[in-house]
Amino acid sequence: RHWGFEDLAAKGPVQRLTLFTGVPVCLITGYAETRELLAHPDVVRSPLDGPHRDTMMDDLINRTERHMLGANPPDHTRLRKLVTAAFTRRRIDALEPRIREIATGLLDQMAAGDRVDLVNAYSYPLPITVICELIGIPPVRREDFRQWSSVFVNATMHTAEEYIEATTLMLDFVHELIVQKQQAPTDDLLSGLIAARDGGDRLSEDELTSMIFLLLAAGHETTVSLITNGVHALLRHPDQLELLKAEPDRLPAAVEELLRYDGPLQAAIPYIAQAPIDIAGSRIEAGEVIVFALLPANRDPRKVERPDELDITRPDSAHLAFGHGIHHCLGAPLARLEGRIALGMLFERFPDLRLAEPERDPVRTPGLLMNAIRELPVQL
Ligand code: HEM
Fold it and tell me: Percentage of the chain with pLDDT > 90?
């Protein structure tokens, strides 16, 4: 174990602490409590207190944060419905051949070397290419996107100037793209959303740009970690990897277990209680900020047997890596598909793959949100 909430989880399923930002929060680390509260009608989003808020202009905030993740019903329902159709199981399954093609291209490039950084060579480019193609972002701008969205997702690690610059550049580009797609629509998601905005579906301009921001941020950093953390965990558990290679039908269950064991997010972004709630012998007062520590909840010994063991034969653990309730991850079917393809094809192509520095634990992104390995040197 290595995450920020590790020591706290032992102190009970509901507790109080003050984050390093100075905000007092109610921290939930229990599995049952997380499920109950995430489905509770009085657990809602508050107007988000985002990073660098004191120096950001209202305009910039409006154009990036009017998205479903920060919204409550009825806005949430309306916004989510607009993209739900693009993320149905059938639509996502239809992407499979293209995702395999992208993975093959990356594996071919990797094969030219002997030792590579898996993040840079494989886990990162695969999901960013998929999400950019899905939305309709041209290949020439993807490297820019990679840089901007990294500043975005790791906002607290950057200065206000860097954050505002990245946001402004990305907004300018999204605006340019919207104008282009308006003139020449295609069958991608952005064209569909523009049609919705113009067709009376009550999608405002700010909501449109915010939606693109959300999909880009939510749609790739997390999937990068599903792939990297997953490969790392399997390489550290050769018995599990051998079992998977011998019985590839176990791949879907293995992906679920990897999401439970070392999932991409340490926590969901904060919620707030809008009325007092009694839970596990504690009372959460109206107005309290609630943080859900997803990784400890997924290893709650009251829910999972031998929680610290990676076991791909485990019956469905109903993990919380994708959250729960109305904000349950919209992209889960896509993330699962990408995870299965990425892991399956990697070990098929490089059956002798191993950690290049097995004696060293890889460096992870600091902070309490992401659970991301920054670099994973592997020997092909
Ligand atoms: C929401 C995790 C991949 C789009 C969420 C939430 C979690 C999550 C925990 C809920 C957050 C909360 O309650 O505060 C993950 C993980 C992923 C992943 C672990 C990869 C393994 C994706 C992908 C997409 C996506 C690929 C889109 C292409 C979204 C969206 C929401 C969301 C739009 C907001 C849903 C709403 O507010 O109704 N994700 N996600 N995610 N995710 Fe994902």
Answer: 54
Instruction: Determine the distance separating the centroid of ligand 1 and the alpha carbon of 330, expressed in angstroms.
Output: 6
User: What's the gap in Å between 101 CA and the centre of ligand 1?
Assistant: 24
pLDDT digits 0-9 by tens, 238-268 = 999 999 999 999 999 999 999 999 999 999 8
CA 121 remoteness from chain centre = 19
Distances (CA, A) of 178 to 79, 135, 136, 190, 198: 18, 11, 10, 8, 12
| pTM, 2 dp | 0.93
Q: 172, exposed or middle or buried, with CB in 10 Å at 0-12, 13-18, 19+?
A: exposed
Centre of ligand 1 to C-alpha 286, Å, is 26
Q: Are 222 and 292 in contact (CB under 8 A)?
A: no
Ligand 1 center to 46 CA (angstroms): 18
Residue pair 321/232 in contact (Cβ under 8 Å)? The answer is no
User: Where does ligand 1 bind, in terms of residues with CB under 6 Å?
Assistant: 68-69, 80, 131, 214-215, 218-219, 222-223, 226, 263-265, 268-269, 321-323, 327, 329-331, 334-335
Per DSSP, the residues of 258-283 read HHHHH-SBSBPPPEEESS-EEETTEE
Name the 3-class secondary structure at 356.
coil
Which residue has the CA at smallest separation from atom 10 of ligand 1? 323
Give the other-Cβ count within 10 Å of 9's Cβ. Answer: 21
Alpha carbon distance 68, 207 (integer Å): 9
| CATH 3.30.930.10 fits domain 6-379 | no
